């Protein structure tokens, strides 16, 4: 019966892809941003589902299983970061990207923000997107491989292949609209699953006291976790929230929403969804710790605790639905990442590398075709990386999350709010943030060959270095040209006019 549920889920995803193919893929605006006509409801759940990915149902419960209550501070940091993203970035980005010659991608916005269509900042940011998203996508495929291996006894490698094949099919067909609509459905599935699983699992205990009794055999109590928390540990956990400002697959949703007036509605829906699902993921990990101890279950991989609950506690039909929730989480993020990567390859790297007359000769439909080829190409490379089954979902996600947050987060904020930001400062900020993160992750500078990331999460120094570099370079550089100032002032004017309009 679980196979039937999964088959139905796959059919629905492909059907949505076909529907979107007929609706929105005639030009690049439709393929990349859904024609900027996405509803606030779809925007909210699409942003949430593409954000949380497989780590919500596998990585986060697994982290709670291993780390205990310290994981709550990661969740708190994410909630604060997501809220600030809606408040600080979403409204202004929606207006500014349209004012800046209708920018379709984040690298294109970075470039046109300075009055030029093909400056170096566009090429460099596009290259970083492709690099980190390939790594990020591989994390989703690792989760997919683990799911099929644990739940269906399918060889890990084949599980990763099946996962990427389904995602690539509907992303190739329908572009952004297909990704957003499938994300909406997937977000609903995740919401139900993350309420159902921890609640049913908790009923296996007589009381909360019994759960706590068994859980403390493996993880410290909340009091012990709080008393043992270090300053660096707290900063590292809360700093996950900084990453939101620089995640292209999330903030592109703000560019595609049909009106800036819809942002507040999307925020209310998105934050409500996020609060419930994060609590559900943490509860799944906590109940899982107690359940494994009480019933003496051997759990080789903590990141599969949600799968174990799905198989043990539920009827096969419901089990199939819950397993589909994991696939939903995985696929929603992979599809978003593939589309953004393909957009950067097509609109930013390939198009920007050609002379203007050659770019003009390439029609919209041809660009869409190139974009689809890009989706398949990035997916293939990510699949090859994912074949290393020793990778941790949470570890891969944390590295890519930090890379984007440090490289793009400060620049997004400065681009939106600092009028005298210059092109040289933007380029230096991207490079310095990305290089700081890579050094922090890989340079064995501590005793025993340990890296600095073992002391402090790499997004913190990366974000700080990038911000300082941008500020200092802008102060030393020439004033921006008149067109750049005019776009900035036009954005201010549009937002001011919207604030004066009566609420509907």
TrEMBL record:
Family matches, as Pfam families: SSF
Q: Which InterPro entries does UniProt cross-reference here?
A: Na/Glc_symporter_sf, Na/Pro_symporter, Na/solute_symporter, Sodium:Solute_Symporter
Instruction: Give compartment(s).
Output: Cell inner membrane; Cell membrane
Asked if the record carries the keyword Transport, the reply is: yes
What is its membrane topology?
Multi-pass membrane protein
Domain of life of the native organism: Bacteria
Catalytic activity as recorded in UniProt: L-proline(in) + Na(+)(in) = L-proline(out) + Na(+)(out)
Gene3D superfamilies recorded? Sodium/glucose cotransporter (1.20.1730.10)
> Mind telling me which residue stretches traverse the membrane in this protein?
6-21, 72-89, 121-144, 156-177, 184-205, 225-245, 273-293, 305-330, 368-387, 393-413, 425-443, 455-473
Record's keyword terms, sorted: Amino-acid transport, Cell inner membrane, Cell membrane, Ion transport, Membrane, Sodium, Sodium transport, Symport, Transmembrane, Transmembrane helix, Transport
Question: Which CDD domains does this entry report, sorted A to Z?
Answer: SLC5sbd_PutP (cd11475)
UniProt function note: Catalyzes the sodium-dependent uptake of extracellular L-proline.
Family named by the database record = Belongs to the sodium:solute symporter (SSF) (TC 2.A.21) family.
Supply the NCBIfam families for this chain.
Na_Pro_sym, sss
Q: What is this protein called?
A: Sodium/proline symporter
Per the UniProt record, the source organism is: Fluctibacter corallii
Q: Which gene encodes it?
A: putP
